[in-house]
Amino acid sequence: MNDFSAEALGLVIREHRQAQSPSMTQEQLAEQADYGKGGAVSISRIEHGLVSPGEQRLAAIALALQLTPGQLKQEAEDRTRSLARQRGQRPVKLRDQVAETKRRHADINEKVAQRSKITQEHGEAFNRVHDAVRDAFFLRFVDLAQSISGAPEPEKPSKEEIESTGEIPTAMRIEAMSAGIANGIRGAAAGGAAGAAVGGAAAYGTFTTAALFGTASTGAAISTLYGAAATNATLALLGGGTLAAGGAGMAGGALLLTGMVATPAAALAAAGFYVLRQRRNKKEEERLRTQVEAAEAALDQSQKGFDTMVDVLPRATAIMEYVEVHGTHALEKWRASLPPEPRDWESLGHKGQERYKEFLRVAGCILAVGFINVPALLTAEPDALHTMDKAIGETLRYADTTIKSIV
Fold first, then answer.
1. 1-89, which class in CATH?
2. What does the domain layout of the chain look like in residue ranges?
3. Residues pairing with 343 in the sheet
4. pLDDT tens digits, residue range 204-223?
């Protein structure tokens, strides 16, 4: 794990960028580091210590600044230690101590405000496309699938496969979710609870519950197909925590982060921080300085999780955008090729049957992407965060590859 702060890395990057001959702009650095649209904004946020780039991005930035990744990291580590020493050197006069504490409090408020803004931008972008895919692809497929009688139950991971693998691979988790969707479709066609759902959000909630918590033909809850060895953090990756709390997976959970990143500043306000007071005694200054330091530590501790969120949400959004454009078009072509109602499985023919199975896999991928428990990233301990980040990456890669191979 890196031993440098986002603030220190940002300062080092900015200094090297400005030291280029001629001085490099943020737009130029973003272009040379292969950032896409809005890259200058990303560089600005990095330089202000709001986010830290991942390994690949950091390497690209280092190359653009004529450094090796190791050199950039080492300088950031050195600067981190230097900043820590500076903050440990308290001014002698109480008046100067008060001024420093106020400055640090203002920095916390600014960082929290910027984190909230970034979170809201990414969350709203994801929510928009998520809802579009929910209505135009997922529920549209469910509606068509309900009109087909006799569709076979998808293959699910066997008990032997589950026990032999320990933690279930991403492909098996998504297969289990697709099976849950199929169970919900059959229940709706038979007039079960799923069929009673009214409205897009309500129907979607019914089918996601069937996929994540429904009962398989073996009598075991689908959620148990993630494997007995799976940790609570791994279970939460596919939405368990968020759904159990009555949320809406990543779609609802992303904006919850806005409140979570504001917690340190809220704690300071609740403690009666005296921003407008011009005078205070030494004891009061010590108490408030301690609170500021605790808030700074809370922000630092959540930085890695926040950086992961900033990486995850745009990737998830891009997957949903692909489904919105290409998936809905492919689904409409399949709909046009279906025989008139009433339809049964045999009437679809081999090609139509294979398309049904493929769209069911896409639906499973949509749920896997949409119900990653993003809020858990901010509160995860370092080891758990590493595990979650790896599992999320695998989920996104598998979903992206699978969807693009189908539509």
1. mainly alpha
2. 1-89, 111-259+302-406
3. 148
4. 776 776 666 543 333 334 33
